[in-house]
């Protein structure tokens, strides 16, 4: 079953009381559909394709951290954006992953209808699966438009989530080192 998103957006625009034939809105249903497909492209990606064999043998066993990976996602409850950054770390176990692949994993999961708590776990589990690391840590901070633009209207609030797997969960000192290095 194929749904014509252009028509759906035209119906939404009409439902709010606008004239979809007005000059400024004539192409809006098509542009909105294109934007929505882009913002949710993570549904059409999978871990194997994103990693693209960019896992390499390495003797490195020290913590690898990629900080401040910006992301944009859509809240699954209101379809409003949440915007933030992810800090991702892993402890190699004979393999390292290409640096850009960590950002691509973050993008893959953020480009789906999400809640931040689940996205944090999905990123951590995917990196662990891709690298078979001794441990993975993911910490995310984001600002949610559903808190800012509607409802409670809190402009300065942000949400922080973290998931610690393997050595990051088992070792307080490893977890503390990660948190100290990302400034938390």
Structural write-up:
The chain is an alpha+beta fold and 184 residues long. A hairpin with a 5-residue loop joins strand 2 and strand 3. The radius of gyration is 19 Å and the shape is elongated. The chain has 8 helices and 7 strands, in the order H-H-H-E-E-E-E-H-E-H-E-H-E-H-H. The chain has a 5-stranded mixed β-sheet, with helices on both faces. The protein folds into 2 domains: 35 residues, no CATH class; 133 residues, 2-Layer Sandwich (GTP Cyclohydrolase I, domain 2), CATH 3.30.1130.
Provide a concise account of the structure shown.
It contains eight helices and seven strands; from the N terminus they run H-H-H-E-E-E-E-H-E-H-E-H-E-H-H. The protein is of the alpha+beta class.
Q: What's the arrangement of secondary structure elements?
A:
Blueprint: H1 5-15, H2 28-39, H3 47-51, E1 55-57, E2 64-75, E3 81-91, E4 95-97, H4 99-110, E5 113-114, H5 116-131, E6 135-144, H6 145-148, E7 159-166, H7 167-170, H8 172-181
Parallel strand pairs: 2-5
Antiparallel strand pairs: 1-4, 2-3, 3-6, 6-7
Helix pairs in contact: 1-2, 4-5
Number of helical stretches of at least 4 residues: 8
The CATH topology of the largest domain is GTP Cyclohydrolase I, domain 2
Reported CATH architecture of the largest domain: 2-Layer Sandwich
Annotated CATH homologous superfamily of the largest domain: GTP cyclohydrolase I, C-terminal domain/NADPH-dependent 7-cyano-7-deazaguanine reductase, N-terminal domain
């Amino acid at each position: 079953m194929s749904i014509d998103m252009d028509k759906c957006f035209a119906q939404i625009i009409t439902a709010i009381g606008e004239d979809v034939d007005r000059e400024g809105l004539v192409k809006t249903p098509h542009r909105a559909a294109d934007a929505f497909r882009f913002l949710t492209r993570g549904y059409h990606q999978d871990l194997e394709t994103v990693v693209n064999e960019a896992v390499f043998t390495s003797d490195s066993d020290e913590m690898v951290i990629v900080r401040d990976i910006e992301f944009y996602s859509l809240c699954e409850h209101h379809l409003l954006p949440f915007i933030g950054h992810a800090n991702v770390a892993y402890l190699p176990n004979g393999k390292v992953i290409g640096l850009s692949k960590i950002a691509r994993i973050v993008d893959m999961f953020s480009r789906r209808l999400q809640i931040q708590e689940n996205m944090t776990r999905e990123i951590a589990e995917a990196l662990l699966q891709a690298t078979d690391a001794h441990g993975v840590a993911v910490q995310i901070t984001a600002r949610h438009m559903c808190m800012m633009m509607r409802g409670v209207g809190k402009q300065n609030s942000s949400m922080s989530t973290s998931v610690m797997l393997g050595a990051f969960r088992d070792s307080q000192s490893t977890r503390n080192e990660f948190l100290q290095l990302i400034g938390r």
